[in-house]
Amino acid sequence: MSGTVEGTLRRPTRPVRVGQVTIGGAAPVVVQSMTNTDTADIVRTAIQCAELARAGSELVRVTVNTPQAAAAVGPIREQLGRMGVDVPLIGDFHYNGHRLLADHPECAAGLAKYRINPGNVGHGRKRDEQFAQMIEIACRYEKPVRIGVNWGSLDQDLLARIMDENARRPVPQDAVAVMREAMVVSALESAARAEALGMPGERIVLSCKVSGVQDLIAIYRELSRRCDYPLHLGLTEAGMGSKGIVASTAAMAVLLQEGIGDTIRVSLTPEPGGARTQEVIVAQEMLQTMGLRAFTPMVVACPGCGRTTSTFFQELAQSIQEHVRRRMPQWRVEHDGVENMTLAVMGCVVNGPGESKHANIGISLPGTGEAPVAPVFEDGMKTVTLRGEHIAEEFTAIVDAYVARTYPRKAATR
Questions:
Q1: Is the N or C terminus of the chain more exposed, i.e. has fewer CB atoms within 10 Å?
Q2: 107 is in an annotated binding site
Q3: Distance (Å, whole) CA 320 – CA 343
Q4: Domains in the chain and their CATH numbers?
């Protein structure tokens, strides 16, 4: 588990145990993600689960939509074990989850948590029966559940009821307010139904996912006011590239700053051929830049200006960022506290030395017209000046030596 930074006071919630990970209570905000492979493809799904876990996803959700996908859960779990990856798997169920869990007990037992959408477990009397079946199976195997309401599949009977109640108000609310209220009511009533069926409240996580930033903020503020279940944050469709990153950060950062949210997922649409792990990195960087958690050393770099016509400082900043991410899995095993390290790669003399002194390790590269020297600062003190064609390699070696010298080695475990 990565380091935790003292910061915003969190809203008090019940702790829910998911495998070896705790959501809510005093636990730090948990990062999770979801595969986009066909779950029935055991090898590809296990590989992607491992990639996400190694990138820092502490929970990984997989689609369980067919008998073949349900049958694959156990072998995927076994393959991950052979790969040395121990990450809790969450099953994402829609429409036929009651049948899949009943027909595939190894799937029901192998998953660490079930995600249930109350809007699409069935209609009318079947909805109640099929929801009850899933809750009863979760109780039998002592599994927690996330009751995940989604505005794209909101229970239409419940929405009609809320609309009728609103119409009888002396001053009816607008359609947006009615939709938001229906989302909150769906989550709370479903949780109450689960508890009535025997599900302990300490095994329930709630979410109400929408695509609009202001909708998400308003809904979660109200949901957090009316319950103490841990809450899963995330836009249901954030989008691609910078739009998805900005939308997710704009919505979740507001809530996290208010102490709302116990686990997050950044639902990015990958660029064609892009890595699924990007959403994990964005979630980590969001939490780390807010001071809520620390995952990997942070690299500060100036944006560049007319004083920095060379691209060398940009290339070095990118190289160092990639280096620390590459080394972090090993550093995390060997050293305590290295995730809190900060590095600065600055491009000229204006802010370079000052920023470098504020970082654990910083380098101030020469700008346009400046002397071709690069002073290096460690914990505020200048330690060496680099020159020549091998500044990048020498600075990388200084970073590695600093980690080895500064952060205590963990005791070897058997």
A1: C
A2: no
A3: 9
A4: 16-290 (3.20.20.20), 298-406 (3.30.413.10)
